[in-house]
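Subject: sequence -> structure tokens, single chain

Hey, anyone have a minute? Need the predicted structure for the following. Not urgent.
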Amino acid sequence: MTQPKHARDTERGRYYSDPAGGPDLVSVTNVIDTGVNKSMALVPWGVKVTLEYTLDRWPFLTDRVTADRTELTKELKAVHRGVREQAADLGDRVHAAAEARALNAPITDDPEVDPYLAQFDAWLASWGVDLTEHIEATEITCLHRRLGYAGTADLMVRLPTGPGHRMELWLIDYKSSATRRASSVYPENTLQLAALRYCETVLLPDDTEHPMPLIERTGVLNLRAGSHALVPMPADRVAHRAFRGALETTKWLHAAAHTYPALFAPDHAPAPRRRATTRKAA
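Reply:
Had a minute. Here:
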């Protein structure tokens, strides 16, 4: 996962430090990761990739079932994590290339990223996006100090989607995948976009502050190796209220104690455990 300027990873997930000196702000992605249950999709996916890995290597794994069972078990348990980390790394590199293109900056040569970047270029060309005139911001930090959260917007760009092709300001989030269809999105993408859309403040690269621009449309730009699609998302006030519910859940979980003392019936409390001591040889 990319690391925005003021973001830092903690035991409770990602938080943003406030350059103005206020309390840390929980990240939008942290809220969604904590407050949205993804197990219904991730568990079957994890089983699928582990099964595919095993079947593809079955002739080489059979001898290890008995001879190297412990290490084989560790290896198979880690398969889904490795696949996710590889996908996340590719996503970070695609994001970085798209940001560089939007800024008209040099781009690192990366053959694996090139097909995705070509689709981003095709999308810019199809909408007639002028990098100088139409792009308002890229990878910009958005803050909502009153509610206590922050996030990073991938792209703010003006597109001719209004009546009579009037230019409208879009907030767009990039999503890359090697397997999902270009038209596919997740419901929580709407929560992410709504959280960013209704922030109060944006930070420029020099940390100067400006009011959040008035966002007229929101969407996910899916980038695939051979296709792309801009999918509009209904990131409205209703979605923002839903995000705020997840935000309160996240704050409660992050502040909650992890252990509580047990309650025993009278005269049935266990004896205090003696601390282990070591004696040096005389």
